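batch_manifest entry 22 of 60
target: M18 family aminopeptidase
source organism: Nitrincola tapanii
requested by: lab member K.T.
priority: normal
notes from requester: please return tokens only, no post-processing; we will run our own comparison against the previous entry in this batch. if the run fails, retry once and flag.
--- input ---
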Amino acid sequence: MHIADFNADLFNFLDASPTPFHAVAQMQTRLQAAGFELCREDQVWALQPGQGYYTLRNGSALIAWRQPTAEEGFVGGLRLTGAHTDSPCLKVKPTPELQRKGYWQLGVEVYGGVLQNPWFDRELSLAGRVSVRRSQGELAHLLLDFARPIAVIPSLAIHLDREANSNRSINAQTFLPPVLGQSDEKIDFRAVLKQALLEQGETDIEQVLDYELSFYPYQKAAYVGFAQEFILSARLDNLLSCYTGLQALVHSKPGPGQVLICNDHEEVGSASACGAQGPMLQHWLERVLPASEQRYAVLARSVFVSADNAHGVHPNFADKHDENHGPLLNAGPVIKLNANQRYATNSETSSIFRDLAREAEQPVQAFVVRSDMGCGSTIGPITATETGIRTVDVGVPQFAMHSIREMAGSEDAFALYEILKAFNQRTRL
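--- output ---
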């Protein structure tokens, strides 16, 4: 795959994945096109050597894998790549209708560590999952995407807030409800959703029961820079890693056990049935390797690459980085380290990743947070704790993490893809 084709499809994936539900649906489409078969969690699995499979949980998390070839078996352990499908956003509340001064709005709840200021004055659309009852009484869970600008969060004019540029804090309850239109009559939001589903092509909806819906910026992913050095998009953290891991799996030759794990709810702590702290991976391991003695031996030979974007050194805020550990955009993926185990990398796993980068002829960088600042975390330490698998935390460098629009180098995702392909096909680690 050429880098231009890789980025073009990455843009398509980002634009078509406004929520974790849509991201998983997009990954499912690509896996099926590559010959991977669905293994439903409520059925018995009959797995064949060399065949690709995937399983879903909650429609927002996914594990995809290729069974090792008959010759290789699980002798060399598993090559696992992990990412997360969720991003910070504004989610619609259960009873969201607001009617004020002739405008109708929706109450929203902040999901994750949202950088809130950039959400103002943006064309917003709405997407997610809607649960309905059919006319015969059965329940259905449907994806919905309005796919057009339907809302905005207007800023207050500087004339009415003279300190807006120097001393403004955002009240999430009162500042963030988006404006969707004008009406003097009470709006039934569930009736709006029913009509939108019908317009989307659904034909049998008796009642909208509930939903999980998020606002998102309508603006598409794009190149930025005089020489297109950068990419700008919503949800780069962490759909970029989901896409990169998926492409590495699909384009790897059958061999060792190759696995992609895309969990939900990382941005709020990973403690859910489909989060990294939940039992999803453990359940999968027990089904694929039912004999405990064999499973423990395989896990001892396995390596987990936790792929989640890293903080690139910002030219306007270079002092926020350790002077020797400021990753540059377009200078390669970043190995993330932290002495207090906020990242799971150790010298053994970082060496493995560096050697894979050498094999793939790709550059690699390192990130350590300033000693006087706190450090974020990823699914890496959680997965390492739950499974005991050797883990390395990596990611492409980016700017504006958790903003409504994020920025990364146009070369780094492809570099990570090449390294992950080498990882999937390495017979011994």
